[in-house]
Amino acid sequence: MAQLKPTSLSEKSISQNPSGAEYATDRGFKWLARASGVGTIVLLVAVLIVIGAEALPAISKHGLSFLTSAVWAPGRNEFGILAEIWGTLYSSILALIIAGFFGVAISIFLTQDFLPPALAQVFRTIVEMLAAIPSVVYGLWGIFVVIPAIRPVANWLHEYLGFIPLFSTSFGGPGMAPAVIVLAIMVLPTVAAISQDAFRLIPYKVKEAAYGMGTTRWEAILKVMVPTAANGIFASLVLGFGRALGETMALAMIIGNANQISLSLFSPANTLASLLASTFPEAGQIEREALMFAALTLLFITFIVNVAGTIIMSFASKQQTS
Amino acid sequence: MTMTTADFSQAAAAKAVPSMRRSFAEPRNLRSYLLTLSVWLIAIIASVPLFSVLYMLISQGGARLSFDLFTQLPPAGFMPGGGFGNAIIGTLVMVGIGSLISIPIGILGGIYLGAISPDSKLSETVRFVGKVLTGFPSILVGVFVFGALVQAMGTFSALAGGVALAIGMLPTVLLTSEQAIRMVPQRMKDAAVGIGCTTTQTVWKVVLPTALPGIMTGIMLGIASAAGESAPLLFTALFSNFWLESLVEPTASLSILIYNFSGMPFPNQIQLAWSASLVLVLIVLVFNILSRLFGNRKV
Question: In this complex, do A248 and B138 lie within 8 Å of one another by their Cβ atoms?
């Protein structure tokens, strides 16, 4: 067969096969990119292995009683983190209830045509900015603004409603209540951002159909939009919960770091992460080993929650887009 | 004129159809109205903390703002004056190290996910790991680097701090790079391949320049969050009251300074903590705004 002649004016075509060197570069670069991807997986595995290995001495020394005892006495070599597990879960659940309520309400407010686009952008930026404030700054703000602000309310609640377990102790400053408030503020952007995405994925015609049936705006939102976005909202709550569980510095500054289990909002408490942050810098060798066990426990809890949240979210977005 | 049957049924229908006018006396309308009112209230309440934080930063932190803050070392106990020059340098150096490590790896990973083999099993796994790492508590990253690096080196160091920040930044850079790269229109890539580009040439000459604003958004966001990070530094860089002299010694950072000073009973230290917070938030905001500027230029 006769070779095809380029028909362009210049004799040489602009397209040509890559040279050997170009092939080699290509292969090298692809390998490098692949290695970076694999590196991410290796990193996660390494994190799991290293923290596990660090915790091993304490696991063999203390065993399961570490998880069921609420004593932290480095002087007597007795360590247990039941109080911290309780504090972590209790503070995160309470914060999630507040942040979930506000976050979902705000995502409805920002996605369901309540506002002209420019104003919606202002509110969206405000909520996103909440995520940009560093944890330590929230801690400082918690000490000097939140604690004084809730003191009168807390005193009143304790005085008149002290028979309710939530208000059963007097308010001494750092404790569960300020920690929960600050934690809720820190989790709010996560919940709001992911739920907004869930609402935005719903095709507009779904709402039009609801309006066509004669619903009011809120009947359309509550009976059609929210159920349609339910999986995405659920994912936002789970991922927000994961955030709350691992939040460290702000809590270390305002939760009071007391090793006790109490239902009361006004008594000091502790979480796994803030135990690590507040104890680690000055800890001796044996206490450090015990802290590594606490870190492994935190890793275990947050890992499960995060994996669950990620799976629910990809499931939700697949379901909504299909 | 007599009424036709059509006219008659129309009149009957008009009588049967309820008024289309909305009345607030009707419970469902009233409820709708109240709910709208309450979401407005909720949104306004949710904005209060941000403004309260900003007000405190400006009034408390701004009161002490002076040149000395940037040139002097943290004061001891009862000492007056002082600053946090070493902490600013420490934060910048560690964020720099973190960026040097995480940006190349993150972008390369993003290229792999977005342009080289988007649908492979490996990419799915990397994507999943990236998302899980995004929600990973930063304090555990600190514990990991402590076990992997600090113990081996025998000292807390800026280097270890930088590595910890890099791990924190990596998922952000990786996932936003992938997103940006995926936004590059397929026909542009096809055109490049059509004139005989290898995948690498396509990536370097077509994909990366087009995706650059999106990638920069991710980098700026990563830097912003790394600058405000504190928990991992507690385990890796710790703190120092002196100027940074080498990368393998304990290093000061703004966030740890705020943490340390916030618990002290001295008004001078508390004031410094507020000023340091103001400086830290300004650094974070600069990168945040940069990310938005890049984001707005996205195609």
Answer: yes
- Cα(A179)–Cα(A168) distance, rounded to whole angstroms? 17
How many other β-carbons are positioned within 10 Å of the β-carbon of residue A112? 17
What residue spans define the domains of chain B?
83-296
**pLDDT tens for residues A219-238?**
999 999 999 999 999 999 99
Query: What's the pLDDT score for residue A322?
Result: 59
- Tell me whether B288 touches chain A (CB under 8 Å): yes
User: What confidence score (pLDDT) does residue B26 get?
Assistant: 81
- Measured CA to CA, the distance from residue A96 to residue A101 in angstroms comes to 8
H or E element in which residue B46 lies: helix B27-56
- To test the contact with chain B by mutation, choose from A249, A255, A292 the residue with the greatest count of B C-beta atoms within 10 A, namely A249
Task: Report yes or no on A25 lying in a domain.
Answer: no
Count of structural domains within chain A: 1
Better-predicted residue by pLDDT, B17 or A55: A55
Give the range among A146-155, A185-194, B10-19 with minimum mean pLDDT. B10-19
What 3-state class would DSSP assign to A168?
coil
> How close, in Å, is residue A289 to chain B by CA atoms?
11
Other C-beta atoms within 10 Å of B59: how many? 11
Which residues, listed in sequence order, are joined to residue A79 by a DSSP beta bridge? A72
d(CA B36, CA B30): 10
In whole angstroms, give the CA distance from residue A54 to residue A36: 26
Q: Which amino acid is at A235?
A: A
Phi, psi of A78 (to 5 degrees): -110, 125
Length of chain A: 322
Give A134-159 pLDDT, tens digit per residue: 999 999 999 999 999 999 999 999 99
SS3 B178: helix
pLDDT band at A2 (very low <50, low <70, confident <90, very high): very low
Q: Can you give the pLDDT at residue A1?
A: 43
Mean pLDDT value across residues B69-83: 87
Residue A193 sits in which domain range? 88-272+303-321
Q: Over 80: is that where the pLDDT of A198 sits? A: yes
C-alpha distances (whole Å) from B266 to each of A278, B75, B85, B86, B88 are: 20, 11, 20, 20, 21
DSSP category for residue A281 = G
Chain A residues touching B129 at Cβ < 8 A: 40-41, 43-44
As a CATH number, domain B83-296 is 1.10.3720.10
The pLDDT > 70 percentage for chain A reads 94
Report d(CA B119, CA B138) in Å as an integer.
30
Q: What is the pLDDT of residue A176?
A: 95
Angstrom distance (rounded) from CA B298 to CA B291: 11
Is A292 a domain residue? no
Looking at the domain assignment, is residue A309 inside a domain?
Answer: yes
Q: Is A67 inside any structural domain? A: no
pLDDT tier at A320, thresholds 50, 70, 90: low
A202–chain B nearest CA distance, Å: 20
CA distances from B177 to A121, A186, A239, B286 (A): 24, 25, 22, 20
Question: Between chain A and chain B, how many beta carbons pairs sit less than 8 Å apart?
Answer: 256
